[in-house]
């Protein structure tokens, strides 16, 4: 009788365990819309990436992805909202290296630690930065722009916000070229690009998709690319290094990050979906061919190593350029 009772108890326990396992969040994920938090105003590169991936991943996973723009504060408020969110895979940060690598590197007291407070999902794309000036600025190339800046110290230079990669690129150019600018921070490329088009600032650093249409319309002039080599989408555009300021090289990494303690199975599922989306011809055309992004797609482990490298790199750049955010 005792043997029968024990056997029955074991069967019941096994059935209960199987039921619990089948009902874990990872097993049924997703069951409701997934929010993609973008720390900039609409119109910039992270916003474009979030919307393209959100559509592709939504179709693949059979669930809606909702993009929420939360600009300002160097991306810290948006990042902190994700850090505080439930670690269930329904709130994901889509940010560039400004948020998860540069801000922590430039801050005397970092507002958060990316590899402790966030769970990297996948590095999606890398975007080159372009040096762009208003069409009325009397400079047709990088050398002429540097020469102009030396005659007009304090020239207004816009960025996508304090402690962003766009800001650091400006500081790098200032340091390497020996010129002075007045930094005018905005809440993303959605604001800084209209500012340079209107002539409110003389120059900005921006990604290709944010400024290409304005350049074609003659409203801005692209002087160079802050990358080690030229881009295939603009093969005639020289790098800033070859155009007169050696070493002025900086790119934007854009990826997906979940709250820390998100179940590894969910993080892996999201990573797999990012990689899957990058294989779709429509996504490759929109992000690669049209926008000029380098399409990456990494595992969570690879993204962790990438962020660790960026933290070291940007920390060194910050010290060299003398930039710090209090």
How would you describe what is shown here?
The structure is a single chain. Helices cover 47% and strands 20% of the residues. The chain is of the alpha/beta class and 326 residues long. It has helices spanning 2-22, 25-28, 45-61, 76-84, 97-106, 114-117, 142-151, 165-177, 189-198, 208-216, 264-278, 281-290, 300-321, and strands spanning 34-38, 65-69, 91-96, 118-134, 155-159, 181-185, 203-207, 220-225, 251-259, 294-295. It starts with a helix and ends in a 5-residue tail after the last helix. Strands 1, 2, 3, 4, 5, 6, 7, 8, 9 and 10 form a ten-stranded mixed beta sheet that branches. Helix 8 links the parallel strand 5 (155-159) and strand 6 (181-185). It contains 13 helices and ten strands.
Backbone CA Rg: 23 Å
Distance between the termini: 73 Å
- Nearest-integer average pLDDT: 89
Succession of helices and strands = HHEHEHEHHEHEHEHEHEEHHEH
Largest beta sheet, briefly?
A: 10 strands, mixed
Shape: globular
Structural category: alpha/beta
* Helix residue percentage: 40-55%
